[in-house]
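Chapter review: from sequence to fold.
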Amino acid sequence: MVVAQFGLLYVCLKYRPRDWDETRPYRIANFWQWPNFGAYLEFSAILVVVHSVLFLLLHRFDFYVQLLGLIALGLEATLPIPQVLANYHAKSTAGFRPSVLAGWCGGDAFKLVYFFVTPNPWQFRACAAFQFGVDIILCVQTFLFRHKTAADLRERAELRDTAGVAGAEALLESRGDRHEEEDESEDEERRSGGYGREGRK
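The token string follows.
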């Protein structure tokens, strides 16, 4: 999972919008908005080392272990919140796939039921309930913003502008652009008396 998340982060950085530097929101020290992939790897490595040292020193204290678990569960429970805020500001869920929402709801519902029917600390139940509640908000937004979402999707389909969008469409389009540039350069070479790559061989 960690490797997959870093892979997604690399793709997002590689295909981010061209005006990203001007439009990104303000954060202290540009936290988690760094310009290159190496900065994220360095921060993650430092975080792992610091947590490892703290756990070796404090693992005998029950309060520290419970606090660490609560922070971890709390961070996971807040993961859908940025999507909720983005949907609210755009009044649309265009770009947020229904299959992703279904996966979130199904997984979080299963987790919620499991934590309540088996003996688990209250932190697990509270965070699972909060996360499932955020999923419900996403479902409500999908219903309320359905007309604006449909209009946005039609507009995107007409414009076919995927510049700076991380995803399969952007990857395929960028690959297609490269092939078109290669074909154009070969045509120019043929017109000027050359024979392209095949002729040179």
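Two observations follow directly from the output. DSSP finds ten helices and no strands in the chain. The CA atoms of residues 183 and 196 lie 9 Å apart.
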